[in-house]
Specification:
Blueprint (H helix, E strand, L loop, with lengths): L2 E4 L8 H6 L3 E5 L3 H13 L6 E4 L3 H14 L13 H19 L3 H9 L23 E5 L11 H12 L1 H6 L5 E5 L7 H14 L1
Parallel strand pairs: 1-2, 1-4, 2-3, 4-5
Helix pairs in contact: 3-6, 4-5
């Protein structure tokens, strides 16, 4: 169950679907109008426990979120994975069958109702997976192609600050560093030259 930090989340086109699929998301955008509507989208999609919205500059968010995730991780109830559409349908069918069976007064009708019941959906676990530390951010998403690459310099000081505060525990949890997904522009059309162009832009920062 991944923990994601969406640096330029907008109204939530990445954050909300990720939360619906079971991820926990710190979703940020500097634009207050965007975060206002992102909160609406989070509520309408019933993922409020799984998304934390903030309105910060991207660089400040990167520096802050590693500390927030470490010091105040998502609570256990956030780890209840949302039911899929199929699971919700089966759950509704099972509830209707149980209700129909309870309203039947004859034994034969009760037997028939019990025979038609759909198996109940197992309750999802409300605990973080044992192999995953809830303080660890797995992915950073940076979907601001024009300028996202300019914020890469914020990561090293952010994690250095965390390590200075919590020492070897940080090194253990972050033995493998998060994957940073940077969306950016290039004028090059060929894959190799485009890759070189992006690397040069990154190194220039």
């Amino acid at each position: 169950m991944p923990l994601i930090a969406d640096v330029f989340a907008g109204v939530g086109p990445f954050a909300v679907p990720a939360a619906k699929r079971g991820a926990l998301v710190y979703a940020n955008d500097l634009n207050q109008e965007s975060t206002k509507w992102m909160e609406v989208n989070v509520k309408n999609n019933k993922v409020v426990p799984r998304v934390r919205v903030s309105t910060l500059d991207g660089r400040q968010f990167i520096q802050d979120v590693v500390h927030i995730a470490w010091a105040t991780p998502f609570p256990p109830e956030a780890y209840t994975k949302p039911l899929s559409v199929k699971e919700r349908r089966l759950k509704r069918t099972a509830a209707k069958n149980v209700s129909a069976a309870s309203d039947t007064t004859t034994g034969s009708a009760n037997d028939q109702g019990a025979g038609n019941q759909t198996p109940a959906i197992d309750a999802p676990s409300d605990q973080p997976p044992l192999e995953h530390d809830s303080r660890r951010i797995d992915h950073f998403v940076m979907n601001l192609p024009a300028t996202a690459i300019e914020f890469l310099d914020a990561f090293r000081p952010a994690f250095a600050s965390l390590r200075n505060l919590y020492g070897q525990e940080v090194e253990r949890i972050y033995e493998t560093m998060p994957m940073v997904h940077v969306h950016c522009f290039t004028r090059e059309l060929e894959e190799q030259t485009a890759h070189k162009d992006v690397i040069e832009l990154s190194d220039a920062r």
